[in-house]
């Protein structure tokens, strides 16, 4: 076929801003930045989310927490063991079902949660600092709508399913780059 009769090929590479990429960039930035801010407390963002849930739902069991966060029970146990070893939570066997463990924050856990909540509030304000209050509320509503459409749990996070080794690897890489 002569060259002049061929249809021009469409460019499959988009030059427009992609929603997924922007959300991923912002989410990664927000998570890593918050993780650095609370690292000195010896907890990670998943730990913080669990402490918040336990505070709001004290006395509920591990299965309910695993279901709410969308995390496999074996992964949850590891995270809860870490919180318990730090003296931040207590587990108590149910009197009705000895297989069930009810969760409570300890005094130390409550005090830590209060400190980290203040950091989280400041972090949230910083993330939205370039927006007006109306823009911020609109963004929150739109993100909540996107999340709900995909049946994402409001307090859950895909990061709950990953082992903290990822953050430890990032910590090693960060330390290496500081030395260079």
Give an overview in words:
The chain has 180 residues and is mainly alpha-helical. It has one domain (42-127, 134-174): Arc Repressor Mutant, subunit A (Orthogonal Bundle), CATH 1.10.10. It is built from 7 helices and 2 strands, in the order H-H-H-H-E-E-H-H-H. A hairpin with a 7-residue loop joins strand 1 and strand 2. The radius of gyration is 22 Å and the shape is elongated. Residues 163-180 have low confidence and may be disordered.
In brief, what are we looking at here?
By secondary structure, the chain is mostly helical.
Order of helices and strands: HHHHEEHHH
User: How many structural domains in the coordinates?
Assistant: 1
Low-confidence stretches: 163-180
CATH level-two architecture? Orthogonal Bundle
Please state the overall shape, judged from the principal axes of the Cα atoms: elongated
Number of strands: 2
**Strand content range:** 5-15%
Could you name the CATH topology?
Answer: Arc Repressor Mutant, subunit A
Number of helices: 7
CATH superfamily: Winged helix-like DNA-binding domain superfamily/Winged helix DNA-binding domain
């Amino acid at each position: 076929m002569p060259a002049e009769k061929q249809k021009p090929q469409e460019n499959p590479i988009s030059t427009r801003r992609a929603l997924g990429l922007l959300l991923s960039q912002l989410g990664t930035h927000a998570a890593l930045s918050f993780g650095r801010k609370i690292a000195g407390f010896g907890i990670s963002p998943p730990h913080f989310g669990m402490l918040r849930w336990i505070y709001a739902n004290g006395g509920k069991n591990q299965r309910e927490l695993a279901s709410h966060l969308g995390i496999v029970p074996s992964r949850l146990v590891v995270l809860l063991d870490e919180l318990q070893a730090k003296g931040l939570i207590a587990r108590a066997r149910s009197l009705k079902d000895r297989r069930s463990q009810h969760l409570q924050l300890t005094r130390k856990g409550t005090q830590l949660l209060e400190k980290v909540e203040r950091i989280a509030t400041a972090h949230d304000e910083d993330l939205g600092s370039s927006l007006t209050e109306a823009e911020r509320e609109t963004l929150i509503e739109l993100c909540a709508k996107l999340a709900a459409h995909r049946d994402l749990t409001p307090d859950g996070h895909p990061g709950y399913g990953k082992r903290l080794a990822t953050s430890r690897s990032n910590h090693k890489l960060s330390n290496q780059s500081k030395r260079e």
